[in-house]
């Protein structure tokens, strides 16, 4: 009689939801600590809000079907209300400020660290679940709060490990875009044609003038054969937009438009402040910066990494954006009916870690010192060694896997241990320990030509009195 086959689930993770462990999490924690210290040095205090918000509070993704799923992950509560995992950290901030408006200092300066979720197609370095660290100033009008946020944003990226030469902050203004739309005769509130124009402009750095011209006109077919409907602008309108995108002189036209003139003046003052304080070499005006979220109302900016990486097709491309920000004076008004001038920035930590890893620019994340367990009768001795190291602030563990010395050394290597402590029969008899600096050994191995030479020199290894163990390890770690 045949036995019933046990049906087992397949071990697999959902697309866009990465497993992370060990060195990557250590690197993320260090990055968040460094960025957080920059934010705190500017006087921003940390705030934590829940992962779930009522879907209507998120603003951009109001439910218009049975299940709202345009970009967010949602579920229905037992009281039939829709809840969604937060798409970013700004919409929850808007809800918090509106809920606590009378009790907050003005300006209100907060930063936040947290996981966010986006129901979008995943790609290289782009996940459905990722970490952000934001800073925002509410009740803070333009342009001086904007200049400060940009300076802090630059400092945060530097603290995270981004070299100044590898990043460029691209700056523009939604007010200038509004002025341009009005100049060519479009209603900026019309998300149809005006929205198509802005989306086309946003692709300028990728498609160039010819590709954008097609999207501003009848439409464009890409290499795969997919066709994108255009904005159906007249030739004169297209010429005006392209002149603006190519850096042509639009000052006179924008000066005659109230919103455009206001946006231009704000950008001028921001650049002036950045120049005075030594940041202007890392910031450039770029009209192709549109920003996708609808709530931006003034200056907007993006951090673009300028070094090359290889994409999933083996092509060499620039890595692209790892952070952004801008002004959103109308977001909190959704709750209170009054504008609250606000500006903020956000660093995409998961994406930035991917970028620095691809460039081999991540700090080395060290594992613990591993005390080998060569004699099970001496386990208390080994634990005392690890305990003594921990009291000195040095991560340490005793090997507990029950295997021999070779397997223990392989374990230490996989754990990223900088040093192993070896205390066998010979060392115990002399109250000594043998200490092996695994990093120094790896470096020295590149120059050693034979096994005999390696056995004779034993690079990075030294036997010392047990009382000197902590000092020796401290010196090597420093």
Strand order of the largest sheet: 1-5-6-13-12-11-7-10
Query: Can you tell me the number of structural domains?
Result: 2
Rounded to the nearest angstrom, the distance between the terminal CA atoms is: 68 Å
What structural class do you assign from the helix and strand content?
Answer: alpha+beta
- Give helix % range: 25-40%
In short:
This protein is an alpha+beta fold and 478 residues long.
Give your account of this protein's structure.
Its main location: cytoplasm. This is Histidine--tRNA ligase. The protein is elongated. It has 18 helices and 18 strands. The chain has an eight-stranded mixed beta sheet. β3 (74-76) and β4 (82-85) form a beta hairpin. α4 (144-160) packs across α10 and α6 (193-201) packs antiparallel against α7 (204-216). It has 478 residues and is α+β, with helices and mostly antiparallel strands. The chain folds into two domains: 22-51 and 86-358, Bira Bifunctional Protein, Domain 2 (BirA Bifunctional Protein, domain 2, 2-Layer Sandwich); 369-477, Rossmann fold.
């Amino acid at each position: 009689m045949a036995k019933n086959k046990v049906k087992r689930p397949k071990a697999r993770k959902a697309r866009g939801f990465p497993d992370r462990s060990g060195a990557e999490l250590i690197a993320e924690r260090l990055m968040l600590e460094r960025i957080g210290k920059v934010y705190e040095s500017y006087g921003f205090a940390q705030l934590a809000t829940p992962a779930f918000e009522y879907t209507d509070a998120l603003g951009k993704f109001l439910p218009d079907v049975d299940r709202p799923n345009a970009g967010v992950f949602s579920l229905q509560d037992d009281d039939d209300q829709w809840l969604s995992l937060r798409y970013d950290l700004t919409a929850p901030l808007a809800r918090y400020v509106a809920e606590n408006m009378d009790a907050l200092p003005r300006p209100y300066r907060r930063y936040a660290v947290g996981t966010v979720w986006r129901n979008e197609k995943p790609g290289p370095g782009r996940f459905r679940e990722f970490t952000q660290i934001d800073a925002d100033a509410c009740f803070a009008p333009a342009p001086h709060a904007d200049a400060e946020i940009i300076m802090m944003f630059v400092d945060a990226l530097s603290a995270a490990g981004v070299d100044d030469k590898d990043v460029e902050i691209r700056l523009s203004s939604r007010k200038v875009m509004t002025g341009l739309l009005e100049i060519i005769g479009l209603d900026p509130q019309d998300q149809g044609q005006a929205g198509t124009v802005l989306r086309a402009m946003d692709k300028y750095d990728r498609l160039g003038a010819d590709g954008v011209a097609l999207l501003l006109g009848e439409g464009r077919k890409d290499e795969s054969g997919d066709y994108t409907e255009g904005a159906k602008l007249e030739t004169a309108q297209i010429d005006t937009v392209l002149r603006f995108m190519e850096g042509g002189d639009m000052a006179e036209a924008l000066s005659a438009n109230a919103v455009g003139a206001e946006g231009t003046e704000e950008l001028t003052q921001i650049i002036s402040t950045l120049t005075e304080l030594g940041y202007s070499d890392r910031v450039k005006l770029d009209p192709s910066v549109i920003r996708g979220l609808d709530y931006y109302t003034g200056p907007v900016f993006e951090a673009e990494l300028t070094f090359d990486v290889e994409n999933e097709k083996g092509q060499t491309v620039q890595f692209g954006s790892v952070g952004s920000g801008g002004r959103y004076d109308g977001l909190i008004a959704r709750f209170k009916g009054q504008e609250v001038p606000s500006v903020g920035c956000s660093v995409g930590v998961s994406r930035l870690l991917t970028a620095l890893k691809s460039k081999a620019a991540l700090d080395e994340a060290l594992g613990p010192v591993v005390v080998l367990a060569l004699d099970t009768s001496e386990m208390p001795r080994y634990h005392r060694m690890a305990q003594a190291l921990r009291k000195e602030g040095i991560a340490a563990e005793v090997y507990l896997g029950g295997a021999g010395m070779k397997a223990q050394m392989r374990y230490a290597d996989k754990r990223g241990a900088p040093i192993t402590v070896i205390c066998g029969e010979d060392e115990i008899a002399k109250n000594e320990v043998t200490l092996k600096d695994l990093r120094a050994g790896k470096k020295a191995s590149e120059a050693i030509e034979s096994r005999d030479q390696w056995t004779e020199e034993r690079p990075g290894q030294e036997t010392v009195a047990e009382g000197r163990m902590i000092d020796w390890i401290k010196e090597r770690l420093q």
